Structures are given as structure tokens and as C-alpha cells.
Amino acid sequence: MFTKILVANRSEIAVRVIRACREMGIRSVAVYSEADRESLHVRLADEAVCIGPAPASASYLNVEAILSAAKVTGAEAVHPGYGFLAENADFSQACADSGLVFIGPKPDAVRRLGFKSEARDLARKAGVPIVPGSAGLLGSDYAAEAAKVGFPVMVKAAAGGGGKGLRLVRDPKDLDAQVRMAKAEAGSAFKDDSIYLEKFIEHPRHVEIQIAADTAGGVVAFPERDCTVQRRHQKLIEESPSPAVTPDIRRRMQEAARALAKAAGYSNVGTVEFLLDTDGSFYFMEVNTRLQVEHPVTELVTGLDLVQMQIRLAAGEKLPLGQERASEIRAHSIEHRVNAEDPARSFAPCPGTITALSLPGGPGVRVDTHVYAGYTVPSYYDSLIAKLIVSAPDRPAAISRGLRALGEFRIEGIKTTLPFHREVLAHPLFGGGVFDTGFISVMGDAPAVKEKQPVS
Amino acid sequence: MNHDELKEVMEWAKTTDLVELEFRRDDRGFSFSKRPKAPTAVCSFPGRNLAAVSSPAVGVFQWNAPGSPRLALEGKPVAKGTLLGLVEGVGAPKKVEAPCGGVLQNVCVDAGQTVQFGQPLFFIDRKD
Questions:
Q1: Looking at beta carbons, which residues of chain B come within 8 Å of A98?
Q2: B116 and A64: CB-CB below 8 Å?
Q3: DSSP secondary structure letters along B34-75
Q4: Closest CA of chain B from A70, distance in Å
């Protein structure tokens, strides 16, 4: 086992990794930018090294600075957290070249799964369902292709991005016009007018499977996490198990995720993301080759420590459990991402000084955070300041517990998404469990339950 | 009261938290005050203008490349751009250069020492 690990990240995830190290008797090295001098991770680590100025490009994304810090402190391994360099194959290669163990998958597996088209090919070969679509780029026979896929279809630019060249076609008679427009748009935006077709999933849920793999080829898949409550593709609430997943869907999803991990030669922890249709079909989206923000949900459902497992797997240990244990659902868990954003002003970032802070507690309540009263949220980085994760025997109990904990949670001095979370949890649609990724945009349309007064 | 006696009283007064003391006998006596007087003029500091030179990177400090002389000597004049040292980490060594001309007032680092980004290494009494 390692004796010293450098944590190449900031915020709550750096705190999370430092805690795992402390419990395992491993010394931790924090790195920080000049804007994070007062962050909790700097105080909690055994050692802390300033690696650069506030902009991430010069600090948390500065490979030379991070590797230099590892070298001067004698760290043997680097934990990348999530974001920043966590899914950068060149960084994990650079770690290996410097004689450091990168706590994550090997660079070649990251490269195989990092490119969406390659990951899709790999999924197809592994027998993992992908969103049905045209066989390659569209030619003049697009009408036949569209009929084969089935309406509604999405016409997409091959060189696409940013919603350009993206056309939804519900009615076959609109296809000609929409294909022409998509081609014209793609041609002017990307200088490449090639397009392809994909089935449009009308009411998708975002469901993902956490996996863990050792270097000997062992792979296990944990119960799913449902991340359907999103705003502009940003996850806000995650829960496990999903109210929309049956034991049969769960088993098939876990098998698909394990097959893909094996086909990719994957090791360490990762997440396979799927779109779940209302009929129970699911389609592969992408693989996140890192620890996820929402990993605590799985920890509370399974009673396992994924960060410690990650460190042990990186040190070459075998998986400590089999699929049967990994599948065990011991609780229902919900995570709320508390961001320094103002929900009343379309979630505009709201950095500033936290003048007073009171964290919730009691049974089944966990808070992962790097902030404290008097801490100033810097404006340079993302706005996540805390994660509230609750667990209870079942979903209704978890919702009640979540409402109770959110009522206790006070952050003063800055605006946060706490009121938004109370609104979602109290919403009948959320309570009913039947909703899709458009939940937030339709939230206002149904009558929300009047928010209870927080306990004084 | 003679001079020695007065001195004795003043020494004693210093050991107490007395702020003012007045003594009179037969129209003669003394008074003194420990209250600080309001400054009569804007305080002026000596004409010294120190510029800090901080480390540009994480690494191990060296005076110069192997076989090249140390140029940063305390009390010696330096010109803007004078090489004061090198920080060796992963990648090419990062140069520490004088940001201004002047006299190298303080050297706060030694060869072989581990330094982090932003750590003060030198102070230059600037002359420009």
C-alpha cells in the first residue's frame, strides 16, 4: 500500500480523498492555488503545496506543477478527484512516466472510452445497446433509413456540437425539409454537411451504473444511480435505486456495464451512463473514467467506501467483493448538490463570503463540503460548495429525511440552491417518481406543496 | 526634589499603568504624561522600497545551472533581469530573475531547499 498520496484537486472532493487517506493510515498532500489558501482541504491534509495562481490553467490543470509537487513531497500516487485532470489520458501517462501511480484507469482504457464514437463502437461490439440510428452517414436513401429507425428521429450533424445542425423530426412528411435545413446549417457551421439519424427518446431518464474493476480482469457493477433531475445537462439531484428501474432492468444494465468494462480492459472505478426509455429499453451514452460527484449515493446504498476501494485497486489489490455483494441494496439514498448559485436568477453563480453556516445532522445525514463560516467562495472555479446525502430504508423515508435535513441546513451571506432542493423534494412529481430529464422545466406547471417552515 | 529623585520616580511610574502624574509642593513640582502625542506630521518611512521576488514554481531551488556561478549575493547590486536562481521540478528549470534593479537586500532561500509557488525568495532594495 502507498504511504503518501498527492490529491490533485480542490474543494469537497479533495477533502473526501484526504479523509479516505487518513482512515487508511496514508499521508496526504494537498495542492492548492493562491485563491484556495483558506480552503478546508489545505488544512486537513498532512502537507500542502501552493502550485500556482488562481486560474485553473496555471494551477489545477498545470501538469508540471502537480508532478513537481509530487516529486518534492515524495508522494507515490496521485488521486485526481473529478474534473480538472481526472479524465486526461496524457496526465495519467505523465504520472506513469514520472514513476507515480495514477489512481484511476490506465491511459489506453481512458483513450478507448474517451472518444464518443470509439466508445460507441466498443459498446456495439460488446453487445451493449446503443441508441438506434442510421448505419453511418446519410445518403440519398435517408427516407428508408428514417423509416427503419422509427419516428420521431433526430437529424444530427456528424461534425456537430452546440446544438447546430440538430433537427427533431416527428412526422415523416417533414423529413425532406428538415434534412435539407440540417445539411445547410451543418455546412455553414462546420464546413461539413454530413449528417446522420438517431432515434429520438421522448421521455429519457438519465440512469448510470457504477463499476469497479481490478487489473486481473474482475469487474463488478453496483446498483444504478438515477440522475434525471438536471438543469442544462448539469445534474442537481441523484438517487439510488431509481424509481423507474425494475430488478430485471437493473440486472441487464449491470451486465451491459460489466461487458463494456471487460471489452475496454478497464480497471479502477468508473461509471457507464445510459438513457432509459419509458418502455424499459436503455441505451449506452458514455463512460466516465473517474470517480463521480455522486459516488456517495452508491456508498450509502451499498455500505462500501468507493474512494478507499479506488486506492486499493490502484495499489494492485484484487476486488474485495463479488457481484452478489455489489448488487446488494441496503438503503435508499438521495444526494443534493448545493451550489453557490441563485435559483431565482436562473442559477447565476453567486461567489462571496459565507457569514454563517449550520450543517444538518442526525440519523442518515451526510454532508461533504470544504466550506465553513467565514470562508469566501472564489469565483474562479465551479460553484459546488456542499453535497447533502441522505439515506433511509425506502424512498418515501429518504424524501422525508431529505426535507428535514434541508430545513436544518443554513448558509448565510451568499445565495445557494438550497431553496430549489426543498421545492423539488416537496414536489408531487418528484414524490411520484415518474418524470424525465425535462422535470425542472415542467416543475412550475404542477402545484408545488407549500414549503414547511424550517425547524427553529 | 533633585534630579536623581525625579529619575527614580519616573522609573517607578514606568512599572505602573499610570498615564499622567502631577506633583506640587510650595508652587514647585513636576508633571509628566505617558499619553502618546498625536503625530504632528505625516510619518515618513526611510527611503527604502523593497520588492519581493517570489518563486515561479514548485521545486528545488538552485543558485544556477551546474558549473555556473551564483549571482545572487546579499548586499550586492543586481540589474533588472539578473538571474538569481533556478527552480528545478518536472520539466525545464524555471528561472528566478530580478524584476527590477537595486541592491539584493535579503536572501531567504538556500540551494537544495524545496520551494512552492509564490514563496518569497529575495527582497531587493529597488533603485529604479
A1: 90
A2: no
A3: -SPPPPSS-----S--EEEEE-SSSEEEESSSTTS-----TT
A4: 10
Is A251's pLDDT higher than 80?
yes
Is the pLDDT at A242 greater than 60? The verdict is yes
Q: B113 to chain A: nearest residue by CA?
A: A72
Angle between helices A116-125 and A247-264 (to 10 degrees): 110
Give phi and psi for A102, each to the nearest 5.
Answer: -85, 125
Kindly determine whether residue A64 and residue B117, on different chains, have CB atoms separated by under 8 Å: no
With cut-offs at 50, 70 and 90, classify the pLDDT of residue A246. very high
Cβ contact (<8 Å) for B90 and A64?
yes
Taking all residues of chain A, what is their mean pLDDT, rounded to a whole number?
Answer: 93
Q: Give me the interface pTM, i.e. the ipTM.
A: 0.82
Q: How many CA atoms are closer than 13 Å to the CA of A251, on its beta-carbon side?
A: 4
Q: Identify the DSSP state of A317.
A: P
Cβ partners under 8 Å of residue A60, min gap 6: A8, A9, A10, A31, A33, A51, A66, A84, A85
Q: How far is the alpha carbon of B57 from chain A, nearest alpha carbon, in Å?
A: 7
- Per-residue pLDDT for A455 more than 50? no
pLDDT of residue A196: 87
Interface test with B, best of A68, A90, A97, A100 (most B CBs within 10 A): A68
Indicate whether A272 pLDDT > 70: yes
More confident call, A113 vs A410: A410
Q: Give the chain B residue nearest A62 (alpha carbons).
A: B57
- Kindly tell me the burial class for residue A334, based on how many C-beta atoms sit within 10 Å of its own C-beta (0-12, 13-18, 19 or more): buried
* pLDDT, mean of residues A136-142: 84
Catalytic positions of A = 290
Task: Note if the pTM is more than 0.80.
Answer: yes
For residue B90, give the nearest of A49, A53, A98 by CB distance.
A98
Residue of A61, A72, A78, A100 to mutate, testing the B interface (most B Cβ within 10 Å of its Cβ): A72
User: Which structural domains are found in chain A, ordered by start?
Assistant: 4-103 (3.40.50.20), 142-199 (3.30.1490.20), 205-443 (3.30.470.20)
Question: Which of A34, A53, A68 has its CB closest to that of B89?
Answer: A68
* Residue A369 confidence class, pLDDT cut points 50, 70, 90: very high
Strands in B77-78's sheet, in edge-to-edge order, are B50-54, B120-126, B102-107, B77-78
As a whole number of angstroms, the distance between CA B82 and CA B126 comes to: 13
Size of interface A-B (CB pairs under 8 A): 46
Q: Which domains, from first to last, does chain B contain?
A: 3-33 (no CATH), 50-126 (2.40.50.100)
In this prediction, residues A129-136 reach a mean pLDDT of: 85
Identity of the residue numbered A337: R
Tell me how long chain A is. Answer: 456
Cis previous bond, A241, omega within 30: yes
Question: Using one digit for the tens of pLDDT, what is the confidence trace for A143-152?
Answer: 998 999 899 9
Q: How far apart are CA B98 and CA B51, in angstroms?
A: 9
Q: What is the pLDDT of residues B53-94, one digit of tens each?
A: 999 999 999 999 999 999 999 999 999 999 999 999 999 999
Show the cell assigned to A148.
427503419
